[in-house]
Amino acid sequence: MTAMRIATWNVNSVRTRADRVTGFLARHDVDVLAMQETKCSDDKFPYLAFEEAGYEVAHVGYHQYNGVAIASRVGLSDVADHFPGQPGFAKDPQKPQHREARAVGATCGGVRLWSLYVPNGRQIGDRHYDYKLAFYYALARFCEQETTDPARRFAIMGDFNVAPRDEDVWDMAAFAGATHVTEPERAAFQMVEESGLREVTRSLAAQRYTYWDYKAGRFGKDEGMRIDFQFASAPLAATARAAFVDVKERAQAGASDHAPVVVDYQEAADYDSVR
């Protein structure tokens, strides 16, 4: 594997922010970007803007909500629009549970990579909360299967909609009775961590949070959450050398409520030779 800079970013409407997304790619020399909440159907995605910037795109979008994509300048093959076992959802349990646009996979530069937008959960006790947990259980089983080969370079990344530790929110008291921090959600997140993958951003990125709500001036007060992550299989995780959260992007006017999370992957011998 050659050196790669891989980023994940909940862009919160790619059509609204296409210019700033391609600007981010150029500014940070990103090889692969996993996007979430593109909020458009496949036929409305701004492919041309990315193609002009030198990127191929795989996008899964059915409506004007959800939506995931991978943009790559190091190859894009074997695209998949869902992972095996991915559950569907409908508010009415008697209706068909249709699969939503929450996962897209592709092989980029020798890495099998997935962009994921985990369900929000809405409220404790809501059917969407149960759907969120079911999504996590299915994802953990899938990751276990994908990491049986000890040499496989495999990664999942995106908006996981869980703050797995108390330190990942500005004030636990503010989340009393709310989603994202409950024990079932955190246990489900841990199942993914224990599926043969390693979360690589926490130990490498100094920035504490990746998301700040638009409400109540949360960003200005640094009242955020860490809910965006990159997980890598052992051989890929071993090449993770540096990471950062692009807080400056979040600080700009008209920004997404999430900041990009960027990781540099490079073989040790190559990394040592250029330090």
UniProtKB/TrEMBL annotation:
Where do the TM regions start and end? none
The UniProt GO MF terms for this protein read:
double-stranded DNA 3'-5' DNA exonuclease activity; metal ion binding
Per its UniProt record, the required cofactor names are:
Mg(2+); Mn(2+)
What general EC class does the enzyme of this chain belong to? hydrolase
Does the keyword Magnesium belong to this entry?
yes
UniProt keyword terms in alphabetical order: Hydrolase, Magnesium, Manganese, Metal-binding
Give the Endonuclease/exonuclease/phosphatase domain ranges. 7-258
One Pfam family hit: Exo_endo_phos
Q: Which residues of this protein are catalytic?
A: Y117, D159 (proton donor/acceptor), H258 (proton acceptor)
One GO biological process term: DNA repair
Site label Interaction with DNA substrate, positions: H258
Q: Where is this site: Transition state stabilizer?
A: N161
> Which domain of life does the UniProt lineage start with?
Bacteria
Query: Site annotated as Important for catalytic activity: where?
Result: D228
Specify which residues bind Mg(2+) according to the UniProt entry for this protein.
N10, E37, D159, N161, D257, H258
**Gene3D superfamilies membership:** Endonuclease/exonuclease/phosphatase
Q: In the Enzyme Commission scheme, what number(s) does this protein have?
A: 3.1.11.2
Cofactor comment = Probably binds two magnesium or manganese ions per subunit.
Family indicated by similarity: Belongs to the DNA repair enzymes AP/ExoA family.
Q: Which NCBIfam families does the UniProt record give?
A: exoDNase_III, xth
The protein depicted here goes by the name: Exodeoxyribonuclease III
